[in-house]
Design brief:
There is one protein chain. By secondary structure, the protein is of the alpha/beta class. The protein contains 17 helices and 13 strands. It folds into 2 domains: 120 residues, Rossmann fold; 249 residues, 3-Layer(aba) Sandwich (Rossmann fold). Strands 8-9-7-10-6-11-12-13 form an 8-stranded mixed sheet, with helices on both faces. The chain has a 5-stranded parallel sheet with strand order 2-1-3-4-5, sandwiched between helices. Helix 12 links the parallel strand 11 and strand 12. Helix 1 packs across helix 5 and helix 6 crosses helix 16. The longest helix is centred in the last third of the chain and has 23 residues. The termini are far apart.
């Protein structure tokens, strides 16, 4: 289970391709760092953990080059932390960054660490997310724009409507929150984003994926097509002129560029199970699983949640949404029973409204453009607030307004 799951509004940039070597004194700290090494944000980093603390670090680098980051644990002052750091400074290569995990809460000691060039001092016990953030911050330039948040939308089975959910979610985030957003259609052969947004761009995601050596910010700008204010589309060609046999890191460079370009990226992930789709899901900041109220979806969601919890121990749990609920004469698993079987609350339940969704699809429009006051439009609005971390702000404002509205109502009645 996560020590402190990443809050929706907290975005930690992925760590670049670096080497990290840790020298611990407590077995608990070593175990925590070994667990952190498998976190999605450190997938490019090489992490090595050994015991011995500061003395072992000094000895290790007398005749060996130092890594990008050295992490040292000092349990007590008897470990002679200042002396160890002075000796380490004599053998450290230029540019090596040092993090210290300490067990002594002493401001004077902290200042002495900083004077000796220590990048960060973390008080034990250290939460996994705090350590990941500390390492990430070392490689974030001062004053740099925050990295964009990736939201992966995935269908528990084919035909669950995950693409429709992804497109309406992206449109709502851009429209209601004024946040620059990109909807990326990762279904290269059969993607529907260009149809749903009534677009026909000449270029799209295939150019980025099949020729990664050409991908840069200038090419990305040319590949994006504007759908609405604050919303751009990275479309799929939806042609069958070639098979789509992608490598596991096929979308890594593209997603890294998108993170630097816009605050919000909605990834429309097709219902495939391959090395690359698994990697995209595990690497996303937020995951939304779209399910139908049937047994196959229930089984698949349970399997997905179990896998994601295992692979993302320092992240909040994936959100689950039931779509197309209430089809006449169709036996369905009730929403309450679906949630009970999963032992997780449902993020939303979207009713079956074929006329509304059919009209939107045929016109290349979003649900709120066809009928702004419809229940599904309200659900997408709430969902957009939740995945962008604005739901708490809404609730706080509502709590502030309730007393005022009550007073106005009483005054009007009198």
């Amino acid at each position: 289970m996560p020590d402190t799951p990443e809050a929706p509004e907290r975005i930690i940039a992925p760590v670049p391709r670096i080497t990290i070597q840790a020298f611990c004194e407590a077995p608990e700290t070593a175990a925590m760092i070994e667990g952190v090494a498998s976190d999605r944000r450190l997938q490019k980093a090489h992490v090595k953990v050994q015991m011995g603390g500061g003395a072992a670090a000094v000895e290790a680098y007398r005749h060996a080059p130092t890594p990008n980051v050295i992490l040292i644990e000092f349990v007590a002052l008897k470990s002679r932390p200042l002396e160890c750091l002075d000796q380490l400074a004599e053998v450290c290569d230029e540019g090596t960054k040092v993090l210290v995990i300490g067990h002594v809460n002493d401001v004077l000691l902290y200042r002495q660490f900083i004077q000796r060039g220590v990048s960060e001092y973390l008080m034990a016990p250290v939460a996994a997310v705090d350590l990941i953030a500390a390492v990430s911050d070392l490689f974030t330039a001062p004053g740099a724009k925050p990295v964009g948040r990736t939201i992966a939308v995935y269908g528990a089975r084919g035909g669950s409507g995950s693409s429709t959910v992804a497109h309406n979610l992206a449109w709502t985030v851009a429209r209601e929150h004024g946040t620059a957003t990109v909807i990326a259609d990762l279904d290269i052969a059969f993607g529907t984003a260009s149809l749903n947004f009534n677009q026909d761009p000449p270029q799209g995601i295939a150019e980025a994926v099949f020729a990664p050596e050409r991908l840069d910010s200038n090419l990305l700008d040319r590949l994006l097509s504007k759908c609405a204010d604050n919303l751009a589309l990275l479309s799929a060609p939806a042609t069958l002129d070639r098979t789509v046999d992608l490598t596991e890191p096929a979308f890594d460079a593209l997603i890294d560029l998108l993170r630097l370009a816009v605050p919000c990226i909605v990834l429309d992930v097709p219902h495939h199970w391959s090395a690359w789709s698994r990697r995209v899901l595990i690497g996303a900041d937020e995951i939304l699983i779209v399910a139908s109220p049937d047994l196959a979806s229930l089984r698949n969601v349970k399997n997905l949640l179990a896998l994601l919890q295992q692979q993302r121990p320092n992240d909040a749990q994936a959100r689950v949404l039931l779509n197309g609920v209430g089809v006449p004469k169709r036996p369905e698993i009730a929403a309450a029973e679906f949630a009970k079987a999963l032992d997780v609350p449902l993020q939303a339940v979207i009713p079956f409204e074929p006329a509304l969704f059919g009209t939107a699809a045929n016109n290349g429009q979003m649900i709120a453009e066809v009928q702004a006051g419809a229940k599904p439009a309200e659900i997408f609005s709430e969902l957009a607030a939740a995945v962008t971390g604005r739901a708490e702000i809404r609730r706080a404002r509502a709590n502030l307004l309730e007393p005022l509205l009550a007073r106005l109502t009483r005054k009007k009645a009198s």
